[in-house]
Each structure stands twice: as structure tokens, then as C-alpha cells.
Amino acid sequence: MEKLKKNQKYIIAAVIILVLAGAFVWVKFGYFGGVSKLPYSFVKVEQGDFVRQVKLTGTVQAASDVQLSFSVPGKVNTVSVKAGDKVKAGQILAELQKNNYFADYQAASAQVIQAQANLDAQKFKKQDLLNGAKSEDVAVSETQVASAQKSLTDAKTTLSNVQAQSDAALNSLYGKIDNSLADAFNKSNDVVFHLTDGMFNDAKSADPKLAFATPLNSQAEYAAESSRVAAVNAVAKLDVDRKNMSSDYSNYADVFLTVDSDLSVIANYLDNLNDALNNSTAGSLFPQSAIDSDKSAVNGAIAEINGESTALDSLKQSVDLQIKINNNNIFAAQSGVDAAQNNLNLANGQLTLKKSGATAEELAMQDEAVNQAAGALVAAQANVAKAKAELNDATIIAPMDGTITAVNLDQGETLGAGVPAIGMQSAGKFQVETFLPEIYVGEVNAGDEANLTFDAYGQDKNFGAKVISVDPAAQLHDNTLAYRTLLQFDQDADIKTGLTANIEITVVNDKNVLSIPESSIIKNDDKNIVIMASGEKREVTVGKSSGDGRVEILSGLTAGDSVADFGNK
User: Taking all residues of the chain, what is their mean pLDDT, rounded to a whole number?
Assistant: First the structure.
């Protein structure tokens, strides 16, 4: 019983601890009095004006001479004023030759158009992936598959026909080979064993002798008798060689080569015999008429053997050519089959893709393509802004009403950037001097609008002003390098010298821009991530910062989307 009571005490203590822990979590992160205590809140993506301002302080002083210069180097094209001239704000005072700057601006503008078109195309492609294929698109792909299948069937039929035609043409030539070899053997056999057999004694022996005398040339006699033995052997060899032809004629080239060699031996025999006859003398046993008759017979035999050799060579060349033609035709037909098969595979793949829809991997890859295109657009816009600024900087414009006090340039003269060119005295009584930190020097330019307030007059009273000059060289101010900058009031103000001004210079003023708090962005290596209301982690492409805690969104979100903001808690 004591043990049971002791266990009950432990259980009650555990319950109390859990209740207290739950209450702590509820108060800290849950709801208390209906108010959310989560470590973040959700905000809407806004679309509207996007303003970036540079905030500084300055001092009112009496108006003094302002030195105006070109911010870029170049050759002076026109000088429109002289000392003593009265000028109005916005009036052109001098210009450089602008051909190069204008060409750079046009090229940069073209890159922006191209980058925007690419971004639009990538977004459209992503939307297509999300939407999936339409029924009519699937029908088109099915038609393409059927067409590709028919093309493959046709290509295979063509290949079969080409192969049949090739076989027929080659077999026709193969059919002539046996007859041509038989003719070569028969004529060789007739020439050696019938036509010229009687011109020798012991013609079939290993030592045949001419039946006629050749007293004028014993060498010719020897050549005829020895080549007779070779010719007899060549006829026998030719009979064997021609019968070595395989049933499929695949060794035709080798057989033709050996038979041609046999015919050459027989032709050589006939040439030697003809030479011996030409060196023979008539006698009682071998009259001149017999010699003349034998000469005629041998010359005819030479023509026949040479004819057989030529015919066999011509037939071999015909077979060689037909095989080459067949190979080319079959290769072309097979290539047609391969291409048709590849087209069918591609058409089937596209049909499968349209039916199955985009995969998560494909969507992720397309998101990356959209982000890259957005980044390229930002870079292109930066280039065009730089080119436009350089084009504008090739002109000196009066930043205020006033009087020209000095003109230190001539037409055709080459000037460097920042060289004082024109001096000007403001028509107003007062101007504001401030010092621009290095981080802002690339953003603030003469002509930028500004709003001024003074503690002495209260923050509700605003004074309009414009930047009239930014010194080209930095100087040490409060132990920091800065650029002396002058602003002029838009209208003469009832103001006093020495007053401290609160300055807001507008450097960006874009319309219809998507933006969210910078505190909504989570940095992940080189990626910018936001948390959607659904819990999804989404990558976005960011642009410029406003300076008051907001950042421009170039891609990844649309107006009205809800994202987590970690800066409100």
C-alpha cells in the first residue's frame, strides 16, 4: 500500500511538470489572449512604387561658385555658353562626342531586351510544365507516334527490297563466273593439248622437243620447250583452281587471281612458241606452208587466251563494283531504318512525357533556369544603367538657375573625367553642403531630387532640393574619405546659414515593383529562400534594396503571396 501511494506521488508530480511546461510553451510560442506568439509573422508580397533613398546630414551655407565637369573622358563636341551668360536649370552647357557612349547604350539596351525575352520564355516553359499537356497536345503526339511508326515500317520495307535487289544483281554476276572459268579451262586445254600438241615430239612428256628446227636461235627453242612443260602443268592447275570456288562465291577474288596466273603461264608458252616459229627454217619434213599455218594457229591461240584473261578481269571488276553498290544501297537503307527508329523513340518519349507530366526534378531544373535568367536580366539592367549614366555624363547640364563665371574648355579639346570645365554661380541665396560616403558615390548624381528637413522647423516641414554637384575627388572628412556634394533649394527658402539639414536623396524610384521585407530572406549559400504560408521553402531572385528594410523581388513570387517575416518579433 505504501508503495502504491509513493508511485501516485511521482505520477502527480510528473503531470504538474508537463502542465507547467505546456503553459510555458503556450505563452511563449502559442497564443495568449488571442495574440500569436510565434517567432515570425506572415506578410503579403506588395506591388507598387519602390524607392531607395540615401540619408545624410549637411549644413546650410551661402551660395558659392560651383565647378562643373564631365564624369567621363572624351573629346569636346560643343560648348554652348560663355562667361557671363545667364542660364536656367536643365540647360545644356557643353557636350562630348557621344558616338561610343551611344553605341554602348544601344548594345546594353538590346541585351536587356534579350534577357527579358529569355526570362519570359523560361517562365512560360515552367508554366507549361505545371499545367501539363493539353488533350489536343497529347493527340498531336499520338499522331506523331503513328506517323513515326509508319515511317519505320516503310523504311524496313525499303531495306528488304534493297537487299533483295542487291542479292539478285550479285547472283546474276555470280552465275556468269562458273561459265567464264569453264571457258578459260576449255580453251586453255584445247590450245595446249590439241592446237599446239603436234608442234612437239613427246608433247606430254617432261622433256618435249620441237618438231621443227630453229637453227637461228637455240635460246628460243629452249624457251618454247621448257614453257611447254609449265603450260601443261598450268592447264591441270587451272582445272583445280576453278573448282576451288566456294558455293557462295565469297572467295571469287582469290580464285580469279590464281586462274589469271595460270592463264599468264599459258600465254607465256604461246609467246615463246610463236618466237620459236619465227626463228624456224623450212625443211622436207616441215615445209614453209606448215610453218605459216602453225604461226597463224598460235597467233589465234594467243588472242583467245588473252581474251579469256580480259573477260575474267572484266567480270571480276563487275562483281567488285556490284558489291560496292550493294553495300552503299544497303547502308543508306539501313540508315533510313535507324533514323526512323530514333524518330519513333523520340515521339514515344514525348508522348510519355506529356501523359505523365513534369517530374519534381524537371520542375527544380526549370526553377533554376528561371533564376539564372532573372540573374542575367539583373546584370543586363545594371549594364544598361551604367551605359545610360555614361551617356548622360557626356553632357554638362546646368543644375540650377545662375550665371556662368568661367568656361575652361574648347571645341575639339580632349578632357579627362572630373577636370573642372565650367564655373557657375547659383541664382539662389543658399545651398546645402554634405559629404557623400564612398559606398554611395556610384548612386548619387547631379540632378537627383532630395527632400530636406530641419530640426529647427520640425520634421513636418519639407524643403525640396536637387543635387547640383558631386566633387570628382574624395577628401578627408571626419577622418573618413568622402565626396563633397552640394544641393540647391528648389525655391528660395527663408532659411539661415549654419543650420543642420536632414537630407534624403532619391536614387531609385521604380513603379510596379514586387517587394518584401529584407527580414523575410533566408540566405542559403548563394541562394535566397523564403518560407511560404504553406510551409514551402521557395527560392527567389532579389534585386535592389530600398534602404528602409525592403528588397525587390525579380522572380519566384507574385503579388499577394504570403511569406514569413522574421523581423517583426
Answer: 86
The fold of 42-63+428-565 is Elongation Factor Tu (Ef-tu); domain 3 (2.40.30)
Alpha-carbon distance of 124 to 130, in angstroms, equals 10
Closest residue by Cα to residue 477 from 437, 442, 445:
437
**CA separation (Å) from 152 to 329, 345, 353?**
17, 11, 21
Q: Which of 306, 222, 235 is nearest to 272 (CA)?
A: 222
SS3 category, 203 = coil
* Per-residue model confidence (pLDDT) at position 10: 52
The C-alpha cell that represents 207 in the structure block: 622433256
Where are the extended beta strands (E) located within 258-323? Answer: none
- For 464-473, b/e burial (b = at least 16 CB within 10 A) is ebbbbbbbbe
Q: How many angstroms separate the CA atoms of 482 and 275, rounded?
A: 116
In the chain, pLDDT over 90 holds for what percent of residues? 46
Domain boundaries, the chain: 2-37, 42-63+428-565, 161-345
pTM above 0.70, yes or no: no
For residues 65 and 191, give the distance between their C-alpha atoms in angstroms, rounded to a whole number. 126
Q: What is the mean pLDDT of residues 306-335?
A: 95
Per-residue pLDDT of 89-110, as tens digits, reads: 889 999 999 888 898 999 999 9
pLDDT of residue 95: 95
* 40 φψ region: left (φ > 0), alpha (ψ -120 to 50), beta (else): beta
* Residue 34: predicted pLDDT: 45
Pairing of β 420-426 and β 395-397: unpaired
Residues ≥6 apart with Cβ < 8 Å to 101: 72, 74, 387, 390, 391, 394
Residue linked to cell 590464281: 258
